[in-house]
Amino acid sequence: MKKKMDIAILGAGNLGISIASGLRESGFLKNRELTLTRRKPSVIEHMEGDHIKITADNRSAVRKADLIILAVQPGQLQALISEIRPDLDSDRHLIVSVITAVSISEIAAQLQGPFRIVRAMPNTAVAAGQSMTCMAHNGVDDEVMSEVEAVFECVGQTLQIEEELMQAATVVCASGIAFWMRFIRATTQGGVQLGFDAKDAQKIAVQTCMGAASLLMHEHSHPEQEIDKVTTPKGCTIAGLNEMEHHGLSSALIKGLVTSFNRINQMKNKDEAL
């Protein structure tokens, strides 16, 4: 396999386009070629340019690529694999799936060969280059995994985990975006009640949320350490925190995560996993 792998994203919807944009903007494609496929290529023709080709032909895309990202809907996976299987080479091709709730063993069974498979779970912040992408694999060597990580680090941060944690990663990373959005929305509504107009309240809430996350990243600290820095004896911050906890802030969030986790494990229709 070439050190600099050419890439194909099969089924370039919103997620695939966001990944492609991140690769292009980061300069990752300087020594690589990327092919995007879609049933109606005209929808994504704006992506075509240096190092990026657009086609409706999945088989030709596979023949050009070394790293193949499967980005179709779960219900489309079987047909896609049946289509491209004649062109797949287990010695050459690395398969990366960003398809929700489809296991490595399920993909391997459809591929019918000893393929190296990576399962990745980005979230919608991929569009802003701030995704948290969790990944599991079936024995891919470290050098090749470094290449996969480099792809997703163009759109955020990555973490390798055991596959048994992928459902939990879906809840904490992917569903977690919605949970944080609701927290920001509630903060915005509180700001409006305190006198700000909605636009200003949201700006304050969003930047404060970013600031809190950035502090933890920059200081490598624990949330409670940062909380202690802004909670003075008999102050307004500790009064507000205690009132929120009295009404179950932390327990409600934890229960929500567990409920989502239980639900995703019960899903029969994988197209509805999120």
What does this structure look like?
The chain has 10 helices and 8 strands. With 274 residues, it is of the alpha/beta class. The protein has 2 domains: 155 residues, NAD(P)-binding Rossmann-like Domain (Rossmann fold); 104 residues, Orthogonal Bundle (ProC C-terminal domain-like fold). It has an 8-stranded mixed beta sheet, with helices on both faces. Helix 4 links the parallel strand 5 and strand 6. Helix 6 crosses helix 7 and helix 6 crosses helix 10. The longest helix has 28 residues. The relative contact order is 0.09. The mean pLDDT is 94.
What distinguishing features does this structure have?
single chain; 274 residues; alpha/beta; Rossmann fold; ProC C-terminal domain-like fold; 2 domains; 10 helices
Indicate how many domains the architecture comprises: 2
Number of helices: 10
Strand order, largest beta sheet: 3-2-1-4-5-6-7-8
Low-confidence stretches: none
State Rg.
21 Å
Largest sheet: 8 strands, mixed
How would you name the CATH homologous superfamily of the largest domain? NAD(P)-binding Rossmann-like Domain
CATH architecture of the largest domain: 3-Layer(aba) Sandwich
Classification by helices and strands: alpha/beta
Order of helices and strands: EHEEHEHEHEEHEHHHHH
Number of strands: 8
CATH class of the largest domain: Alpha Beta
